[in-house]
Amino acid sequence: MKSVKVRDYMTTNLVTFTPDTKLFTAIKTLLDRHISGAPVIDQEGHIVGLLSEWNCLQRILHGSYYEEVGGVVADYMSNGEDVHRIDPNADIVDVAEMMTTHHWRGPLMVEEKGKLVGILSCPDILKVIYDFDTRNL
Fold this sequence. Notes:
CATH topology: CBS-domain
Structural class: alpha+beta
CATH architecture: Roll
Distance between the termini: 14 Å
CATH class: Alpha Beta
Number of domains: 1
Largest sheet: 3 strands, antiparallel
Strand content: 15-25%
CATH superfamily: CBS-domain
């Protein structure tokens, strides 16, 4: 398979949240867009975390027990240090190998000059393989 760059297959039409987005606004966006999570960015476009449907479910169940449901994305998101970042010029096969070797399951944040420019997820990588295989049938 020839070298394919992340930038050729990453998603660039992004849904993002800010830390002060209301939790239920974020949940509605995830549901309406049929996505499992979205990056949380600051005013300069730097990634500060990731809000996933798993974060929401886990915290809402815990909060409902204590009758404390609501808040803002910052209260529920995964820490920005836990987000996997890659370069848009990385080879997509190398990235896929890193994902499987390190058991990275969530989407990868594509950064250029410290700012979010896209997301690469498993379906994006599968599309590369599918496109390659269907051209070679």
